[in-house]
Write a structure and sequence with these properties.
The chain is α/β, with parallel strands linked by helices. It is built from 13 helices and 8 strands. Bound molecules: uridine-5'-diphosphate.
Length: 240
């Protein structure tokens, strides 16, 4: 059973269990997708029913950071651990490399996915990069066709939330891929364009603050974080 945090159902898994399930989905017939919501996305889902549906219909819903873990604990339904999308993706690529699977990288500014592909290929020698496409396209059709033609087993969809979740729910099956993963700004990190917050910051639930310091224009988005905690506390009172 999933753990409900303000209307989003999370899978309660360790990272190892999450990766094992990701690998199992890759081996199964049909199209599956993974989402990795953080408090900001949960807040978006509260306001946007289509986004909430796309998130809850995913085959794996993984808590991206410590904010969700804290929220679940306050609600009296503690979870095993955080399973950040970018770390899940790294472990999954390790496994895909061992199995000779192919990966398509979709998203970020022009040139970023190519740079990420080059670095990921070096880090995971067995992994096959099936293709790349930037995230600033107008029509889905040609992109979906390009992915289908590449024969990719897996697609990392990095278009930001909730765009990537809606995109995967709508277009996933037509890509022909077995597994799609919505991973936000991960391609920027894989390409080395953006640095991930050091472990200290993420362990203390301060990754958002680190990102804000490096990119002050995120301030508007950050306002959703205190709102998330207010809503969690209100929900806790309601459940008592
Ligand atoms: N992006 C994109 N197409 C769009 C909007 C955004 O490819 O139409 C990319 C953007 O370049 C960035 C990623 O989506 O690489 C979103 O990053 P953000 O930091 O917002 O995501 P987070 O990791 O916070 O979810």
């Amino acid at each position: 059973m999933r753990i409900d945090v303000l209307g989003v159902g999370f899978d309660n898994l360790t990272m190892q269990e999450a990766v094992a399930q990701g690998v199992a989905l890759l081996e199964q017939e049909g199209c599956h997708y993974v989402v990795t919501p953080n408090p900001e996305i949960v807040e978006t889902c509260r306001e946007n029913p289509a986004a909430r549906d796309a998130v809850n219909r995913a085959d794996l819903v993984l808590p991206d950071g410590v904010g969700i873990i804290k929220g679940a604990r306050i609600l009296g339904t503690p979870m095993k651990e955080k399973t950040p999308g970018i770390e899940f993706a790294s472990h999954l690529m390790e496994e895909m490399g061992r199995r000779g699977k192919s990966l398509y990288l979709l998203g970020a500014k022009p040139g970023v996915a190519e740079a990420a592909a080059q670095r990921l290929q070096e880090q995971h020698p067995g992994l096959r990069i099936a293709g790349t496409h930037d995230g600033y396209f107008k029509e889905d059709g040609p992109v979906v066709e390009a992915i289908a033609a590449s024969g990719a087993d897996c697609v990392f969809v990095c278009l930001g939330a909730p765009k990537q979740e809606l995109w995967m729910a709508k277009n996933g099956p037509a890509t022909g891929a077995r597994l799609l993963c919505g991973l936000g700004g991960s391609l920027d990190v894989f390409a080395g364009v953006v640095e991930r917050a050091p472990k200290f910051w993420s362990d203390h639930g301060l990754e958002w603050f680190y990102r804000l310091l490096h990119n002050p224009s995120r301030i508007g988005r950050m306002m959703k974080l205190p709102l998330f905690l207010v809503h969690v506390k209100a929900e806790k009172r309601k459940r008592k």
